[in-house]
Amino acid sequence: MKTVAYYRNSISKEKQKLSIEMQMQHVHEVAAKNRLLIDDEFMDRETSARKKKMEERKGMAQLIEEIKKGRVKNLIVYSRCRLARNVQQYMSLYDLLRQHKVNVIFAADFEFPMMYTAEAELIERIVAAMNQEDAEKLVQKLQDSKVTVAREGKHAGGRIPFGYRSPREDLEEDKEESDWILVEEEVKTIQNVYDLFLQKDFSSLTKFVEIVNELGLRFKDNKEWNYSNMQNVLTNPIYKGKRISHIKGEEIEKDVPHLKIVDETVWENVQKKMSKVVKRRKKSKENQNENHVFLLKELVYCDECNQVMHGKPHQLKGKTFLVYKCKKHSKVRASKDWLENTVIEHANEFFNQIIHTQFAEVIEKIYKGETKGYIEAIKQIDRELKQLEESMVQRVEHALAKEEELQLNKSMLQMLKKYEQSLFVKSELESRIFEMNEKFKTIHDWKQESSLKMIDPDMEDDQKIELLQDIISRVRVSKEKIEIIFRHPLFTGLEGREEIGLI
């Protein structure tokens, strides 16, 4: 089994302080400190852990494969957020590391050790949620800035369309210029393409692309036109002087007359002809997947007969709704979406309440459980050291009594080596306890953070079901209300209850 390292940065080296090189430096220092030789290094350059799943990251996929094959003993990584930014993905990796008993060593000073206990798993989930929240806050800031830019009628991101270029491409341009510049040759090509589209007869857009290419008109970098770039050019409203941005589900439309290439009437006529030429297939509702996942399966009970309520379609006024319904009492039912969303909302609140009110107990339980083993190991080492000291003293006294020269024979050298090794191990264990004591103190600060979601909307359904099974004892439904009975994830026998009126 070997020691491996993993590195990841999200953006280019020039733009990110947490570069691969910086991570390497810290990781190698930690490896040297722990007297470990790094056998393999896996890395993902300019890779977003928020946008890409773990299996889509080449370096991470290779690392996971090595772990699954049981080849990894130690994994050194700069920090937790280098592994994953998504709670579900991080916990999946955590389970894999625990299953194969991989010793994870963090190079960052602010990270605390990764442990594999029930309580530690809860802490890992909290940290993962915070890392995800940090990433989401960063994305939120970027999106907010994009909205501001878009509302000012400026380019809010993405590729620059054919016919324009960035002012930064020309050093002689005014540095204050913040919008695109028309490319004269490409502008003429676009105008010719629009005119040809309205003048020529053809049965499909593919046929029109062939006509344009045969006439010698070329796309960017003198490339031939294809279906995709032709459709983009013929439907982009920027060419009629209107910039449309879609950010955070909001459509922002601004007039940019200085970027206009074709007359608005010409553009509209092209759209009319496009609607006839390009036939879009719409999925019928009948062909859509009719499989529905009921997240609260086996958790919902009828308050009148105490029997499990099953998820099923329910007909009302000619419409079909998905509900949880009692087989014996037809009037005892609750809308699937409303009930699941309500339970998840209150489950997250219950989870946060645990963290905020019983956090000290969780930390103490983790600290005592993990340090107990270290303390016992130190006691054992102290006993061994005492025995070694006594043995060495006896050897010296024996030599002095016989007035012999003390010989460092093989036995004595082995004893000295073992003594030195025991001192080193004791020192390392004491340092580990000190680090745990210091770093776990910082966890208390997390109580001040904003609300954490144990069950996130982006999670897979099976993950939601598993978490709900862990924290929900049962949901009782009557005609007037529902009662959620929570199961405490840390302390057996403790429950929480909440009543919500049916609406």
From TrEMBL:
Record-linked Pfam families: Recombinase, Resolvase
Gene3D superfamilies registered for this protein in UniProt: Putative Large Serine Recombinase, Chain B, Domain 2 (3.90.1750.20), Resolvase, N-terminal catalytic domain (3.40.50.1390)
Domain Recombinase: 161-281
GO terms for MF: DNA binding; DNA strand exchange activity
Residues in Resolvase/invertase-type recombinase catalytic domain copies: 2-153
Protein name: Putative DNA recombinase
Species for this entry: Geobacillus proteiniphilus
